[in-house]
Design brief:
Chain lengths: 481, 438
């Protein structure tokens, strides 16, 4: 049991729904309590499109209400069959169960699904029987994608010309579509065709032809690890895993693809040079800006795995900023994360409690915070510039711009310049802080971490106004009201 | 008027969406959500994705999530002690509500027990709020959490002074001047001359002022100005419900022996007039709102002209759809269909009777069916749930979110004007956008 003021990851069912709703002709059935419906509203607000998501709620009515609604939805096997009849294009049905449904200990129905009235084929049911309340959103998304790939990938000959599968982020990841596009553009430049893009907008047919590819380019390891590992074990398709963030990471990934596709290394290198001189502005920005722009400046990064590590490496090595602290909320990837993060920072950590992150941010006082939407408020109360570049985010723009690839590195350069130029103009205002009485410090500790920065600032302002030499508990209390 | 049961799954947003709004409405109350990751995630994401009012509602320091570990459920009392420790850091905590759903129950958490511990140790009112449907009227509304929280607050109210406890003989007022005048049968009203009324619901001050103007004394309201101020509710208290979705709240008040006035919701001109008249009658006064109602209609004649003949489809999930439809039909609009994801027939009896003859209420609507019917009937505006909003707009419909009306404050005569203004604004904007040569 933990007392929290926010969570980064949703429940496992949300991860499954994200993968299912990313794809075409895959329909998800959410088995949940009648009042646990939310996906349509979230999808409408975040996907920015006008389509309803391929998600159907199968309500668990509980003993009290079951009899009364005998013909209404609520019977899981009937609801699953109903989905096939009502959505004739469905080629695969995936079952997600909410935590309440899981805890109530219901069995997964074993009856086969009916034939689709349109295609005459029987869609497969991916039951996600590994689901349990301890599997969280990201891990569940990873496992669900693996199950879908297992169910549909067929052993086939490799394509005659080199092709690659792009395994990228699912929906609700910021700029997901733009990341796929940028990767596709770069692969096209080095002369590699795309076999399939998974999971965003992929259909069951795309899954079926996955084994044809010569390599799997893993853009978003969090949700594509298991699926690509399966393809490697089963079909021998090698993986390319460096995060394609920043110029160095993108170059490494392209060279690895080139090697696996047996391309002429010089050709790949020529493309990389061309991109470095025309598209990628991050190395250029790092060279033209004065060393003082970056000197002694610390950036805090917190978020998922790929974006956090990719941005951390790019900022530490390619730009020369100090990255500290740098953390992830993906506790199940702790070892891997710390291993990679220690290549560019001394201060790597793993936690899934927003309050602890707020605490660390407050202590380290960086010039810039890069994080998820939960860090925005902390950054605001501390008066530190903030970039919401790491998933999960809650603001989704109409225009997507990549953060990966060479084009993404220029987007990053723009964002950095906007922030670092601002701090040049505005020197540290918090430098002269007043002493605090022990009692006041104890009081301050009690305030939720994400509000502490504001409380501290208000109390010090008030103390200055009162010409007090020290911030006392009374001044703190007054400032808060 | 016909009630059709479509036996479908309506698009209803999880009631956890209301959490931050609830914290705002109950200043001084700490709201602890006890559950698994799902509850915390839903409350937080829905609030951020579909903001209730201002786009940047701050996370309230008075909302905390108790995230249970399914592998290791806490022993009884552990949650309470953790919350007690936390409450020390929250300035001005004067009440605590423990919101717990099915997951917490399945993990063996007894929220009522934990609440009693909190109340005893902190010496503030504390109570459990259930997230699950009560069973009386199945189905779910996005406003359910507000109903359950109000029901809990009613149970925290003092039972009242000895004066209130004096039982006055119930006098059925089925006929009589007022009854005849109003026509339709109301439930009997227990008369006690000059008694005070307690308002339950989110109506705000305007309605209380209207009642005071009619000579009715308003003893208090739930939610009140702050969490600690609760009016006495007990034997003989006259309760006026200002919202249509308050099934549990109404039952909680009745269980305490209070008299709940069964009348129209004070939404729209005629609804407000009937409400004031019936509430007055319940406390033994006679109010005639005819003049005021006529005046209100005349004042908004220009708005009514813009709404007259417009065809409206209700696919919302708030429970306010039925009174809104009743008012808009009175104002001259054509109501095509009213979806009711949860229909409390007993509580809404007066509303259902007051509905025009040619209106269909669809109980447990199927959301795909709703989109299909909206496409067929081509309404001028669809009042919808957040989940259907984008798909309906994509199908070329003019839409308005049902919760927008609640945010605008739909109660009373002024509220009626705000409802019409909001619709007119919607039409004007749609016309403006349609006139652009793209």
């Amino acid at each position: 049991m933990r007392l929290m003021r926010g969570v980064y990851e949703g429940p496992g069912s949300h991860g499954i729904l994200r993968v299912a709703a990313s794809m075409t002709n895959v329909h998800a059935v959410l088995r949940a309590l009648p009042h646990e419906g939310y996906f349509h509203a979230l999808y409408g607000a975040w996907s920015r499109g006008g389509e309803a998501p391929p998600v159907t709620l199968s309500p668990v009515w509980g003993d009290k209400l079951k009899q009364e609604n005998s013909m209404a939805p609520g019977d899981l096997s009937r609801d699953l069959s109903q989905v096939v009849r009502r959505h004739p294009g469905t080629e695969s049905v995936i079952l997600a169960r909410s935590e309440a449904a899981l805890l109530s200990g219901e069995e997964i129905p074993t009856a086969a699904l009916p034939e689709s009235p349109e295609t005459g084929l029987t869609p497969g049911l991916v039951a996600c029987d590994w689901e349990s309340p301890i599997v969280r959103e990201v891990e569940a998304a990873d496992l669900a994608l693996e199950d879908l790939v297992r169910a549909h990938a067929k052993g086939r000959e490799r394509s005659p010309d080199p092709t690659v599968n792009i395994f990228g982020p699912p929906i609700f990841s910021p700029n997901a579509a733009a990341e796929y596009d940028e990767a596709e553009r770069l692969l096209d430049l080095i002369g590699v065709r795309i076999n399939a893009r998974v999971p965003l907008d992929a259909g069951v047919r795309d899954l079926a032809r996955l084994p044809r590819a010569w390599a799997n380019l893993v853009l978003y390891r969090e949700t594509c690890e298991s699926a690509t590992m399966y393809l490697q074990d089963e079909f021998g398709t090698q993986r390319v895993t460096p995060p394609m963030i920043g110029s160095a990471g993108t170059g490494a990934a392209l060279r690895a693809v080139g090697e696996l596709c047996r391309l002429d290394p010089q050709r790949v290198q020529r493309v990389i040079w061309g991109e470095l001189s025309h598209t990628s502005r991050l190395p250029w920005y790092a060279r033209v800006a004065t060393p003082e722009t970056f000197e002694g400046h610390r950036v805090a990064i917190f978020g998922d795995f790929t974006y956090t590590l990719g941005l951390g490496y790019a900022l530490a090595r390619e730009v020369g900023l100090e990255v500290a602290p740098c953390g992830t909320y993906l506790t199940h990837l702790e070892r891997d994360f710390l291993f990679h993060a220690h290549t560019f920072t001394e201060d790597a950590f793993v936690t899934d409690d927003p309050d602890e992150v707020a605490d660390r941010l407050e202590q380290s006082r960086p010039v810039l915070i890069i994080g998820t939407h939960l860090e925005r408020e902390t950054a605001e109360t501390l008066n530190i510039p903030f970039l919401p570049l790491c998933p999960p985010v809650v603001t989704h723009s109409f225009v997507q711009r990549p953060l990966m690839g060479y084009a993404g590195s220029s987007v990053l350069a723009d964002a950095l310049e906007g922030v670092l130029r601002r701090t040049d103009e505005k020197p540290e205002v918090l430098a002269t802080s007043l002493p605090w009485s022990d009692e006041a410090l104890d009081e301050l500790e009690e305030i939720p971490a994400f509000l502490r920065g504001r409380a501290r600032r208000m109390a010090e302002e008030r103390a200055r106004k009162l010409d007090a030499t020290e911030v006392t508990a009374e001044i703190l209390a007054e400032a808060r009201h | 008027m016909t009630i059709l049961n479509e036996s479908g799954v309506a698009d209803t947003l999880s009631p956890l969406h209301a959490l931050s709004g609830l914290a705002e409405k109950l200043p001084g109350a700490v709201i602890a959500v006890i559950g698994t990751r799902a509850e915390a995630f839903l409350a937080q994401s829905l609030d951020a994705a579909i903001p209730d009012r201002s786009p940047a509602i701050r996370r309230s320091p008075r909302v905390v999530f108790v995230v249970l570990d399914p592998a290791e459920p806490p022993e009884g009392g552990r949650i309470a002690s953790r919350l007690i420790a936390e409450a020390a850091g929250i300035s001005g905590a004067r009440m605590m509500l423990l919101v717990a759903g099915r997951s917490a129950e399945l993990l063996g958490v007894d929220a009522e027990f934990e609440a009693r511990l909190v109340a005893r140790r902190l010496d503030i009112p504390a109570a459990a709020v259930s997230l699950d449907p009560s069973g009386d009227s199945p189905g779910s509304l996005v406003t359910d959490l507000e109903d359950r929280a109000l029901a809990t607050l009613v149970n925290l109210c003092p039972t009242g002074t000895s004066e209130n406890l004096e039982l006055t003989a119930p006098t059925p007022k089925r006929s009589g001047l007022l009854g005849n005048f109003l026509g339709r049968g109301r439930e009997e009203t227990h008369a006690g001359r000059g008694k005070a009324v307690v308002l339950l619901g989110s109506s705000g001050d305007e309605l209380a002022e209207e009642l005071e103007r009619a000579g009715v004394e308003v003893a208090g309201s739930v939610p009140g100005p702050d969490a600690a101020t609760l009016p006495a509710i007990g034997e003989g208290t006259v309760i006026a419900l200002t919202d249509p979705h308050l099934t549990d709240t109404s039952r909680a008040a009745e269980e305490r022996g209070a008299t709940v006035v069964r009348t129209l919701t004070p939404i729209g001109v005629d609804g407000t007039a009937r409400f004031i008249q019936d509430v007055s009658a319940a406390v033994g006064m006679t109010a005639n709102e005819l003049g005021r109602a006529r005046e209100a209609w005349e004042e908004m004649e220009h708005l009514r002209n813009r709404v007259r003949g417009k065809r409206i489809f209700f696919a919302g999930d708030t429970g306010y759809e039925i009174p809104l439809a009743r008012f808009l039909a009175d104002a001259g609009a054509v109501v095509l269909e009213v979806g009711a994801p949860r229909l409390d027939r007993r509580g809404l009896a007066s509303e259902i009777q007051a509905m025009g003859a040619d209106v269909d209420i669809v109980q447990y609507p199927d959301w795909q069916g709703q989109i299909h019917r909206a496409d067929e009937t081509r309404p001028d505006v669809v009042i919808t749930s957040p989940g259907l909003y984008a798909p309906l707009v994509a199908h070329g419909h003019v839409c308005r979110c049902a919760r927008d009306f609640l945010a605008a404050g739909p109660h009373g005569y002024e509220g009626a004007r705000r409802i019409l203004e909001m619709l007119v604004r919607t039409f004007e904007r749609a016309e403006m956008l349609d006139s652009v040569n793209l």
